[in-house]
Write a structure and sequence with these properties.
By secondary structure, this protein is of the alpha/beta class. It is built from 16 helices and 17 strands.
Amino acid sequence: MFTKRALGLLLSGAVAMACAAESQSEESNDPSADVSPYDTEESDLTSGYKPGCTALKVGTYALGGTIITPKGPEQGYVVVVDEKITAVVQNRAQVPAGTRIVDTGGVISPGFMDLHNHVAYNFLPLWNSGQRFKNRYQWSGIQGYDTVKKPYNAVKAAGHACAGLKYGEFRSIVGGTTTIQGSVDLSCTRSWTRNVEFVNFCEDHIRQDVLPINGISQSDAATLNAQFTSGQTKAFFVHLAEGTDDKSRNEFEQLRGLGLLKPQVVGIHSTALNEAQLTEMGQIGMKIVWSPLSNMILYGKTTNIPVAMKAGVKVALAPDWSPSGSSNVLGELKVADRVNREQFGHFLTDQQLVEMVTSVPSEIAGMDDKLGSIEVGKFADLVVIRGNVEAPYRAIIDAKPADVLLTTVSGEAFYGRQDILTGIGSSRTFMTVDACGEPRQLSVVENNPKVATGTETMDAINAKFQQDGVTNVIPLFQCSAAPEFAFAPLPLPK
């Protein structure tokens, strides 16, 4: 259920975080249960990273390579002036005089958008329970889940939430993610990636509820529906039918009873939905966020994406969280590609897979006028990938961690290869990290005094984890493929 405070946030137009989860019964699954303790009473929406009310001064540069444009791949240059793309041209001669030019030799893509994650958990390693579950309410209650819960609680209890969040955002940014959903509303999340459910571009149109649907009251639903009608809320993200059983499937009918089968509703996971329900979603205009690795690890199956897309459902791809998902969108693309080959009969094209992390999520989040494609006037959220420029969509899907050459948010470089960062004149503070065998530069320090713990180094973050007794921290980079146990048959719990 929404608490009084959360409902007040819905009414006021600030970010909606469902609270009181610690007191929820076994109906609550774990990631949602621990969001509210980190909520701030009053978010400093002008602090730190890019609420979008004041234009940033980043500088001017042009990136040359194979550009993923709305019309398809094109050779050329993307010209960035401060926050925005000001030109997309075919040759160097068309780049404005005086502009720094870097020929990347790679594929220049819109920055990846991750529309479902639990970022505060993303310092934790992958968890193999040795079994599959029927719904999201089972796995958090088993004894083996302590290997996830105990270290997470230790970091939370020590007041080190920002260390966990920053580490989680770093793992995303090194994989080309520029926008993420599922962070916690703290001032330390005002840098690095965009946080989709907070204020962006001086606007706030996203709501979320990570608790069970049966906790949404008729009053909450009425508030949401009023916001849908007024345009105040463009997207409402809710865990829907996460599992394989009738209990999970019935959540669709619970939404119906609340009057929330609406185009603005985005079903996270939706693994249990049958063909009739997915078809109805398409008729209504509802959307889905798909997390195949987490689905396979926890439930042994994933969402019927071919049926959903044939019905007209827009589908975004996202990794969920590190205990049962990929390290970032780049890793999850490979899982989706494998599922597409082995289970969907190559239903999805390479272009569609890439669009699931670029243009489609921008539409789902109601940000497609500002993000999701490389066009003049849009914000310069970009990722440069090394690979076969003759097959650029496949290059993105197949890219290894070391193939990420640059990640920018609003034109500002947060990660990349040293020569490219130097070439565009980046002025941020960087540290050298090992991207699975190749050196890369990651901006760990944020000098804006309004960003909590912004000047904290990676060594300081790791020291906090050690101090809290967390010795098994997941590496910054995912250098290996998704685990085979995700695709193996495992028993259901007794």
